């Protein structure tokens, strides 16, 4: 793939609907803006209505066209850390009788202090993986009914370092040790586990859909991007140590946008792949490239175990 920029996002014809989780901030917000600009109807799936409405106003102002009212941009409340909220979101989406062509599993938390979701699961695994597992499964028929359609899973290169999923509930949900650097290591490892789960889910779902499927499910690492994701780290770490290596949020949305909209995905029949922005070339460009994920992602047994665990925890009985 040569250099890629926002100009390469195709303008849509007819009605095309996307759901983007965690789209009031960061990468999700820019992804929303650029899709809406190209004619997509985007449903912003966010936990905080006030923040989502502020983001909608900001996106409208940034696009700044005269017929601004015709921009198709909506909000439906979604808290990924609550199965009840995920189910309510899907019900509300269905009440609108809209087709669905694109689901972007974007929302996430990184390295917060230890906490549990509403359903008693460790916060990072619960929010980043389980909430999205439930959401994608509940929306799968919508995506199948509107092919060609796509799912983009925001993983991270943090998934590469993680050795595997902790399948024992008590150990997975155990509070972090309370001593300085050890706490941070445990928080980081748990984030890595959640992002590994994202990529294992992506690969497993793609395989279950099959290579003939016109629902294209692929994962990405967006780069190291200056966003609020780092809010739980000491500010000095991001501003002094990481800042020179961080990409802008615009740059950070491009790998998602490539996998979400580029014709290559369909013409080359790409399923279950892991994309990264391979070269840090100056804005407004990136160079998306498919690379190898963590070998654990390729382990069918491990993926099936995770699928069964996720089914049990989310209470899903029938999945693909
Ligand atoms: N930034 C990076 O360097 C980087 C690198 C690799 C991967 N990623 C991945 O990229 C994705 C987007 O991250 P970002 O950098 O754009 O971070 P961000 O600016 O912090 O945005 C994260 C979004 O997720 C939302 N969110 C958090 N918990 C949620 C919940 N329980 N329910 C619904 N939404 C929730 C946040 O909502 P609130 O505003 O309400 O908190 C926010 O809108 C994440 O999956 C992250 O793991 C980012």
Quick gist of this model?
Belongs to the short-chain dehydrogenases/reductases (SDR) family. The chain has 320 residues and is an alpha/beta fold.
Structure description:
The chain has helices spanning 26-37, 49-63, 83-95, 123-145, 169-172, 180-209, 235-242, 249-261, 264-267, 300-314, and strands at residues 17-21, 41-46, 73-77, 102-105, 149-154, 215-220, 274-277, 288-291. With 320 residues, it is an alpha/beta fold. The protein has a single domain (6-314), classed as Rossmann fold. The chain has an 8-stranded mixed sheet, sandwiched between helices. β1 (17-21), α1 (26-37) and β2 (41-46) form a beta-alpha-beta unit. α1 crosses α2 (49-63), α4 (123-145) crosses α10 (300-314) and α6 crosses α10. The longest helix is centred in the middle third of the chain and has 30 residues, at 180-209. The model has no long low-confidence stretch (mean pLDDT 95). The site of NADP nicotinamide-adenine-dinucleotide phosphate has 30 residues, from α1. Belongs to the short-chain dehydrogenases/reductases (SDR) family.
Percent helix, as a range, is: 40-55%
Main sheet summary: 8 strands, mixed
Instruction: Specify the CATH class.
Output: Alpha Beta
CATH superfamily: NAD(P)-binding Rossmann-like Domain
The chain-level mean pLDDT equals 95
Q: Kindly report how far apart the N and C termini lie.
A: 32 Å
Work out the strand percent: 5-15%
Secondary structure category: alpha/beta
**N-to-C SSE series?**
EHEHEHEHEHHEHHHEEH
GO molecular function: oxidoreductase activity
InterPro entries: NAD(P)-bd_dom_sf, SDR_fam
Family: Belongs to the short-chain dehydrogenases/reductases (SDR) family.
Keywords: Oxidoreductase
């Amino acid at each position: 793939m040569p250099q890629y920029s926002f100009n390469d996002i195709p303008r849509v014809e007819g009605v095309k609907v996307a759901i983007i989780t965690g789209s009031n901030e960061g990468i999700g917000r820019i992804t929303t803006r650029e899709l809406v600009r190209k004619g997509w109807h985007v449903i912003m799936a966010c936990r905080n209505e006030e923040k989502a409405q502020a983001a909608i106003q900001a996106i409208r102002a940034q696009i700044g066209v005269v017929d601004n009212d015709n921009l198709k941009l909506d909000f439906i409340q979604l808290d990924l850390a609550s199965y009840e909220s995920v189910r309510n979101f899907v019900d509300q989406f269905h009440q609108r009788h809209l087709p669905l062509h694109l689901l972007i599993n974007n929302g996430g938390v990184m390295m917060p202090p230890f906490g549990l979701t509403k359903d008693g699961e460790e916060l990072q695994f619960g929010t980043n993986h389980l909430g999205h597992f439930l959401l994608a499964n509940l929306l799968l028929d919508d995506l199948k009914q509107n092919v060609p359609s796509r799912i983009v899973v925001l993983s991270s290169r943090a998934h590469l370092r993680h050795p595997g999923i902790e399948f024992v509930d008590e150990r997975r949900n155990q509070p972090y040790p309370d001593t300085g650097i050890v706490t941070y290591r445990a928080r980081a490892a748990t984030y890595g586990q959640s992002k590994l789960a994202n990529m294992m889910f992506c690969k497993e779902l793609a395989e279950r859909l099959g290579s003939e499927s016109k629902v294209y499910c692929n994962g990405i690492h967006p780069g190291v991007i200056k966003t609020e994701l780092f809010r739980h780290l000491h500010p000095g770490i991001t501003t002094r140590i990481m800042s020179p290596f961080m990409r802008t949020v615009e740059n950070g949305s491009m790998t998602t946008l490539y996998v979400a909209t580029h014709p290559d995905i369909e013409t080359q029949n790409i399923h279950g792949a892991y994309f990264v922005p391979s070269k840090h070339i100056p804005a407004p460009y990136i160079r998306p490239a498919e690379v190898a994920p963590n070998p654990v992602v390729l382990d069918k047994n491990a993926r099936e175990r995770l699928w069964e665990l996720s089914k049990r925890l989310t209470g899903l009985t029938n999945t693909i």
